[in-house]
Amino acid sequence: MCLHQMIREERMIKNLPGCGKTNLNGSNAAPDPAGFTKASPEQTLRDLAAERLRALGDVDFATLPPEEIRRRLHELNVHQVELEIQNEHLRQTQAKLDAARARYFDLYDLAPLGYLTFDENGVIQEANLTAATLLGVIREGLLNKPISNWILVEDQKIYYLHCKHLFESGIPQAFELRMVKKDKKIFWARLNATTSHNSAADVPMFRIVLGDITEHKQAAEALRQSENRFQKLFRHHSAVMLVIDTETGCIIDANEAAEQFYGWTFQELRQMRIQEFNTLPPAVVKAEMLKVSSVKSARFEFRHRRANGSVRDVEVFSDIITSAGKQFYFSIIHDITERKQVEQALRQEERLLRTTIETTADGFWVVNTRGKIIQVNSAYCRMSGYTVDELLTLDISTLDAVERPAMTKARIQRIITNGSELFSTLHKRKDGSIFPVEVSVTYINSDPGEFVCFCRDITERKLAVDRLQTLNDELELRVEKRTRELQETHIQYLHAEKLAAIGKLSASIAHEFNNPLQGIMAVLKGLRKRAILEEEDRELLNAAIDESDRMKKLIRSLQDFNRPSSCTKTIMDVQKSIDSLLLLHKNDFKSKRISVQLHYAKRLPQIMAIPDQIKQVFLNLLANAADACRLPGGVITVSTWQEDNKVAISIKDTGIGIQPEQMSFLFQPFYTTKPDVKGTGLGLSICHGIVKNHQGEIRVESQPGKGATFTVLLPAQGI
Fold it and tell me: Does residue 282 lie within any of the structural domains?
C-alpha cells in the first residue's frame, strides 16, 4: 500500500462516524456492485475488513490442520501489529501534514509580501491575505479578476511589456509601477513575476510577488532632492569648498567659489593635489592633514598660491566624510589675508600705543573692578609724586580728594553700566597738595573686567576758565541786547510774510466777491427804493441786503491780517481756524484742481496761542502744499490728533516732495526752492520761529516725487 493511498484512506476513515479502535466484530459494509471494496462515508474499518474477506472467499477452518490454523493465527497477529504500526505512521504523517499546512498558512497567507497567481490572460487564480490587504479588498474580491484592474492606467503599459517578455522568454521580470486600491488611493509597488505550471490542468501559470514601496520611493525622492539641494548649495556656496582624497591628496570636487578664488577651472583643479598650491612643504601639509583622521575635524592656517601667482593667507576647516566606503577630506577655506593684515596692524598699533602711553603728558592707569591700580605710566607718577611701585599698592579712592570709597564703588558700577564716563575731580599728591584733574574712564568688558583711565592736570585750564567766566558775563549782556533787537526784527519778518500772504488772498477775494457783491447790493437796494412789494417780499429783500452787508464785513475782516500782531495769547480752536483758512484757499485749490481731505480728531483740546500768528503758520503751510502740487489732481490731507499733552496738526500733500540734501536747510532764512518771483525764503523760517515761541515743534517728512508732510505740535490748553 502506497503512502498517498494510506493518507487518503486515513482521512476518509477519520471522517466516518464512530471511527475509533480497530474492531473485527460485526459488518455494516455494503458490497460494491462491481465486486470491489469501496469505502463510503458510512462504512467503518470493520465493514471494510469483512468485505475484503468475502471477496477472498469463505474458508472452512474445521477442515484445516492445527498447524495451518496456528500459522494463520500467527499471520493474523503479525498483520494486526503491522496495521497498528501503519496506523501510528499515519497519525505521525497527519501531524506533519497539519504542521506543514500551518507553516504554509504562515508563509503564504501571512507573508510580508503579496502573492498572486494568474493565468496567461492575466486573471488572478490565487492570492494571499497580504495581497488582498495591499489592494484594499477581500481575497474573494481578487479571484477571477484581471490584475490590470488594480494597475494605474498610465502604468499599465509597463505591466503589459514585462508580461509579454515573461510569456515569450520565461525570464523572471522585476519592475515598479503604481497601483490603485479599492478606495482610489495610489501606491507604488514592486512586482517580481515568474512562470509556473498547473499540473492538474496542464496550463501555464504565472506568479507575482507584490510589495508596497511607496515609503521607499518617497525616501528615494527625498534623498534625491536632498542630494540636489546639497549639490546646489555646494556648487553655489559663497565659501570656498574642496573635497580631497585622504590617501593621495587629489582634489575630487570643488565649487564655483573655489574656481573664482584660485583662478583655475574645475577640470584643472581636479588634476591637482592640495600640496601643489600650498607654500609649506608637501610632507608638512600631509602630516597636518593626517591629524584630521584622528580627531575627525581640525582647523589649519596655510598660505595658498593662486593661478595668477599671488599668495593668500587661508583658514582651512577640514572634516572626514565617507562616501561609497571611502574617506575624503571636506574642507571649507576662508581667505583671512585681510584679517592677518589687520592683526599685524593691531600688533603694531599696540606697540605704538604702549610707546605713546609711556611718553604722553597725560596720566594713564588701569584699574580692576575693585578699584585697585594694576598698571600706571610715568606721567602720572610725575603728576602725583608717587613711584610706580607705590601706586600699584594703592586704591583709586586713595588718590581722589573728593570721593570716598562708597562713592567710588557707585561710580564703578555706573561706568560698567554706561561703558564710559568723563568727569572732573580733585586728586591728592603724595605731599598732600590738591590739584584738579579731568578723568576719562572706559570699561573693557573682558575677563576680568578692567577700567582704562586717562588723567589730565587741568590746573591751568581752571585758571583760564575763571578768566573766561568774567568775559562770559560781559558777553551775556551783549547777547541779551542783541536778542531784543533780533526779536524786533523777527516780528517785522512775521508781519512782512503775513502781508505778502494776505495780499495774495485779498486780491483773489476782491476779484471773486467784491465786484459781484457790489452789483448785487446795488440792485437789491434799488429794488427796495422803487419796487412796490408785498410785505413778505420786502422782508425777504431786506434779509438779502443784510446778508450782503455781512459778507462785505467778512471780507473787510480779512484786512486784520495786515495789522501788526497783538502778541496776546488766547484760547484757540485749531480745527475752526483751519476751516476758515481753507475757505480763503478754496478758489486757489479749485483753479489748480486740488482736493482737500480732512481727518479731524473728535474732542480735540484747544490751545493757548496768538491766533493770527498760528493762522499765519497754517496759511503758509497750505500755500506751500498747493505750490508743491504742480500737476492737476493733487490731494492735500489735513489731520489733527492729540499726542501726549500736545495737539498735533499735519498738512500732507501729494506734490513733488523735497530732496534729501534740502531737508537741513528748510528752516534757514532766505532759503527757498521756489522761483524768485514766488518766494522769499522767509516763510518756513518764520513758521519755525512762531512754533518755537509757542513751546511747540515742527516736523518734516518727505520723499522725492511722493509729497511732503509738515506736522505742527503745540501745547494743549489746560493739560
Answer: yes
